[in-house]
Design a protein that fits this description.
Elements (H helix, E strand, L loop, with lengths): L8 H10 L16 E2 L10 H17 L6 H4 L4 H13 L6 E3 L3 H12 L8 E5 L4 H13 L4 H4 E4 L9 H6 L5 E7 L11 H10 L3 E5 L11 H4 L3 E4 L14 E4 L44 H17 L1 H23 L5 E2 L12 E4 L3 H10 L2 E2 L1 E3 L3 E4 L8 H16 L15
Parallel strand pairs: 1-11, 3-4, 3-5, 5-6, 6-7
Antiparallel strand pairs: 2-8, 7-8, 9-10, 10-13, 12-13
Helix pairs in contact: 1-14, 2-11, 4-11, 5-6, 12-14
This protein binds pyridoxal-5'-phosphate (PLP).
Length: 427
């Protein structure tokens, strides 16, 4: 959608007045002196998440082991309970979702489930721009099968070191590829891959395909009913605001429910026989069969509160505001910052841009240090990227305006010269 933006502060204030999501800001624990632009790395806690965590603790204090069975076994079946609330965010059936582990451990779970290499079909196709933990997990799964990642992990290179090109990915889907695994939104520059097209092409070639939704879920609408991939993984602490290390998500397409999970454990057992504690594992024939051990309630309870906010607002409304916030930020960058060496590193097209924007500057590191001292939290990514994520649920237009003003102050007066180029331990 085309917006007509203006560069005055009054414009920002007026946009906040007419923003239908503006009231949600008060549900989050923000510090008004501080502008938080790092929600794509770690979301902020909401009152709702605080409450569901408190409630879980209260039940534990009162009920002890009886905690598992309150409210119709809610906590015992907590993965299923949360999956129902999560399903609209990816457009799947609740039965196809399990809330378990971390993104990285869920990649191990999915690959160990679906990767059965043969002599002629044994490669896993990934890209070279994704967050590295995904590759570490894939490499180690390949090694566990006695294969060499240099041969069995096929890396699609970015042509320009910045973006991925769908045609390059599709061209790399040769007959020896067994699985394709890709990020829906790139963590570095927010690029959205065409999930429909790539998934369709993989299926045409009889290749299984999985998606990493870490930077997509809670930021952009996803429709798995129509995309119909084989599996997916995601974390819940970025746009889903559920806390550092909160339990992650795994999607298993229902057509695979009969496959035995690669990593089995008693919480994945058929629930009617789970407590017969037999020696033979018989997995539940839905995604909950991919659970391993006892659910980590402390890491799951905040997800419940957070998802209640998404239930009330809806991902479409969130996406609409997010696009407007990022467009506005790009507009201010173009009009005020470009003459000071800033350029925009994310795709400009709406259908190709996720929830954050990415500013490029040769002094990006020192600028991000100066921003920190100006009470703005952003994150820096090597070698010259500043990521800024205005979050629809809690960032105002005025926040965006003020961040650009602060950036302007830093580059205009070259305040970054006061900082060392030596890297601190980065987040
Ligand atoms: C955030 C992120 C992860 C995080 O993995 P954890 O197991 O939660 O540490 C993995 N992959 C991608 C693409 C991410 O963006």
């Amino acid at each position: 959608m085309q917006h007509k933006f203006e560069s005055s502060q009054t414009y920002a204030i007026n946009q906040d007045k007419i923003d239908p999501l503006a009231n949600w800001r008060s549900h989050f624990f923000l510090n008004e002196e501080h502008i938080y632009m790092c929600g794509n790395s770690l979301g902020i806690i909401s009152k709702e998440s605080n409450e569901t965590l408190d409630k879980m603790l209260k039940v534990w204090k009162k009920e002890r082991v009886g905690l598992w069975n309150v409210e119709n076994n809610k906590y015992f079946n907590y993965s299923k309970y949360l999956a129902k609330k999560m399903a609209p965010l990816i457009g799947s059936m609740p039965e196809e979702i399990v809330i378990v582990g971390s993104t990285t451990s869920n990649i191990h779970q999915a690959i160990s489930t679906f990767y059965h290499p043969t002599k002629s079909k044994y490669k896993i196709l990934i890209d070279d721009l994704n967050f590295p933990t995904d590759k570490y997990a894939i490499d180690s799964q390949v090694q566990l099968k006695g294969l060499d990642p240099k041969d069995a992990v096929k890396l699609v290179k970015s042509r320009d070191g910045k973006f991925l090109y769908e045609d390059d990915i599709i061209d790399a889907m040769t007959e020896d590829v067994a699985i394709v695994f890709l990020p829906l939104v790139l963590y570095s520059n927010s690029q959205i891959l065409n999930i429909e097209k790539i998934t369709k092409e993989a299926k045409k070639r009889n290749i299984l395909i999985g998606w990493d939704l870490c930077h997509a879920i809670g930021a952009i609408p996803i429709d798995f009913e129509s995309v119909d991939p084989d599996f997916a993984v995601w974390c819940t602490y970025k746009y889903l605001n559920s806390g550092p290390g909160s339990t992650a998500g795994l999607y298993i397409n229902h057509r695979h429910f009969d496959i035995t999970p690669g990593l089995s454990g008693w919480f994945g057992n058929n629930s009617t026989t789970q407590f017969q504690l037999k020696n033979q594992f018989d997995h539940e024939k839905d995604a909950s069969g991919w659970q391993i051990g006892t659910p980590s309630l402390l890491s799951m309870a905040p997800i419940e509160g957070s998802l209640s906010i998404f239930e009330k607002t809806g991902i479409k409304e969130i996406r609409k505001k997010s696009l407007k916030l990022t467009s506005y930020m790009m507009y201010l960058t173009d009009t005020m910052l470009s003459e000071f060496g800033f350029s925009i590193g994310n795709p400009r097209e709406e259908e190709k841009r996720g929830g954050h924007i990415c500013l490029i500057h040769k002094e990006a590191y020192r600028i991000s240090m100066a921003l920190k001292d100006s009470m703005v939290t952003v994150d820096f990514r090597e070698p010259n990227i500043i990521r800024l994520s205005p979050i629809a649920l809690y960032t105002s237009y005025l926040d965006v305006y003020r961040v650009i003003q602060k950036l302007l102050g830093i580059v205009k007066n070259q305040k970054y010269n006061n900082y060392s180029k030596k890297r601190e331990l980065v987040t």
